[in-house]
Design brief:
The structure is a homodimer. With about 130 residues, chain A is of the alpha+beta class. Chain A is about 15% helix and about 35% strand. Chain A contains three helices and eight strands; from the N terminus they run H-E-E-H-E-E-E-E-E-E-H. The radius of gyration of chain A is 15 Å and the shape is globular. Chains A and B meet through strand 1, strand 2, strand 5 and strand 7 of A and strand 1, strand 2, strand 5 and strand 7 of B.
Chain lengths: ~130, ~130
């Protein structure tokens, strides 16, 4: 498909992807996609990433149930980064992170020069992956 | 500095960075930092990236005047992605992209299977780099 050819895939055939919650504007997570993952995301309307650690397609929510409904697919000026605008399904309030938090970006650098967890755990992460 | 050691730098000593506008929630751009860039960002309160194409530190706004004031530095669950919450200075309405647009993510995949520019050019990009 022509639109997939316009993406500048890196040397590994991947592109970085930012998932942003449409309604809140919160940045939920960051992951990677290959061509097949981006095509599947577009075709299904659900976020499908490429898991670098498992070296396979990762249908977000396949284990946790925390599926992402995709409203918009954006591409940046250099055509090498994708931004998804999503609704994070599966829990209310929404949980995108495997730690059971709303967002993966829960560590904040404090004035004391330390990283602090500033977002609560909403779901016991043990329970997420027993579903 | 200890907090810099907690970041998981990639094989090239870099970490991906998302810049989000604090007040609007808009994702403005995506770039990379090395250790020196992240330390300089923290110390100065202004975004300093690592330019992979120029292989040097890139003080955002050094040519364009479109400096980013950094309010928060966040780190994700895997400690390998940074999120900045910024105020984009230098133009009103704010311009983060070298194309003269508000955000770098101005291309949207349409129902017709084509990428469309959906954000206006706010500043002539020619003029940005003549300052």
């Amino acid at each position: 498909m022509d639109w997939l050819d316009k993406v500048k895939w890196d040397a590994n055939g991947l592109v970085p992807v930012i998932a942003q919650e449409r309604d809140s504007g919160d940045v939920l997570m960051f992951a990677w996609m290959n061509r097949e993952a981006l095509a599947a995301t577009h075709a299904s309307g659900r976020a499908v990433y490429w898991s670098r650690s498992r070296a396979r397609l990762w249908h977000k929510g396949e284990e946790s149930g925390h599926v992402q409904q995709v409203h918009e697919i954006r591409l940046d000026c250099d055509k090498d980064v994708v931004l998804l605008k999503v609704t994070q399904l599966g829990h209310d309030p929404s949980v995108a992170c495997h730690t059971g938090r709303h967002s993966c970006f829960y560590r904040q650098l404090g004035r004391d020069g330390e990283w602090h967890s500033v977002e609560p755990v909403l779901v016991d992460p043990e329970s997420i992956y027993k579903k």
